[in-house]
Amino acid sequence: MKRSGKPLFLAMALLATAPAFAGDLPHWSYSGEEGPENWGKLAQEYGLCNTGKNQSPIDLSGQIEAKLAPIQFAYATQATEVINNGHTVQANFAPGSYLKVNGHEFELKQVHFHAPSENRIDGNSYAMEGHLVHADKDGNLAVVAVMYQEGRNNRAIEKLWQQMPANAGDKVALEAGLKAGDLLPAKRDYYRFNGSLTTPPCSEGVMWLVMKHPVSAGKAQVEHFAHTMHHPNNRPIQPTNARPVLR
Ligand SMILES: [Zn+2]
What we know:
This protein is α+β, with helices and mostly antiparallel strands. The protein has one domain (about 5-230): Carbonic Anhydrase II, CATH 3.10.200. Helices cover about 15% and strands about 30% of the residues. Strands 2, 3, 4, 5, 6, 8, 9, 10, 11, 12 and 13 form an eleven-stranded mixed β-sheet that branches. Strands 1-7 form a two-stranded parallel sheet. Zinc ion (ZN) binds near residues 112, 114, 131 and 198.
């Protein structure tokens, strides 16, 4: 896949379940020969995983003070279904939830999770990380990352996990009525940097918005997710190179 000219396809790829995607491109995983060190060699389309200079995740350290304007969240809709695609557990949202940053509007598509966290903040890893994936009308992506630290049970996670499909490839309609806003921390200060998808094809040009304040999740909730995935599903930290991380 060429990077240029097909941003909409990227958004679709992110939304696709594994079986729909697996027909076109080689399988990848988080360890062994199909693991992150080899993603770039598995297919020409995954080349940026090896050669990209703006890859995610990163360690967010040495941030630059930029007095970032608040993100305007206009989340109005609920998650409609939960999918286990073998790489993560993902909930898709009904259309109509937006955020605005830098005067630019993105629509929320889905949230999915990684354990342990992919990004680090000042060297610190977290028990889990949620990625709220948004796309603008041209298919450009913005991801809001929420860190989970072990503590009290998380009610939003509970709603998702109670219907989390145990087997890869399964999808269920979500009955619990999870609002998008319930996934965000109360304080929404954030870090911003330019990065990529953290899974093949590792496409760049993704705006990353990482919440400074973590939310809590119960130990058993984190373990439930890890057990369902059967393995850690975090890509290792990538070089920051010349990129500034703004705060
Ligand atoms: Zn992710």
